[in-house]
Amino acid sequence: MVRHYKRKSERATLPQDVIQQAIQQVRARAISLRQASRTFGIPLKSLSRYCTKAAEANNNDHSLSGYKKPRQVLADEFENQLEAYVLAATEIYYGLAPKDVRKLASQMAKADGCNIPPTWHETEMAGEDWFSGYLQRHKNLSTRSPQATSLARATSFKQDKCCYVFQPTC
Predict the structure, then answer these.
(1) CA angle 40, 42, 47 (to 5 degrees)
(2) Domain-wise residue ranges, the chain
(3) Start and end of every HTH psq-type domain (predicted)?
């Protein structure tokens, strides 16, 4: 899997609102398909395909252009749940190592019945490429190895004691 994908074409980079305006004008028969193609700067065949998709979708809010994510293992909502779980574990001084997060992702995917790669079955954890992509999608997560926090340190870290140490005049 490619970790740092570089786009090779400018395909499907038009804003959705421009495409919607062109489709509305063509469907309202205000202008022809060719004229809308020239006016809005959309290739004729692409505009024709967008109009066909819009007619089939009956004006639902589905994306008419762009690429799908056919190999996305976990849905966005599950990735967000995993992120929230990792952050919550960090806040209670129980940080998760990268391998733990990968194992947890694999368990979530199996429980949800997602279509997962065969290597996830063999190793019982998500792949390194998936994990690096996951960290790129969720910037507020850290990959550092967790350090053990003693109970005394966790319970004694209070504002009044910190104030006493750092500002003796409190």
Answers:
(1) 110
(2) 16-57, 76-144
(3) 18-50
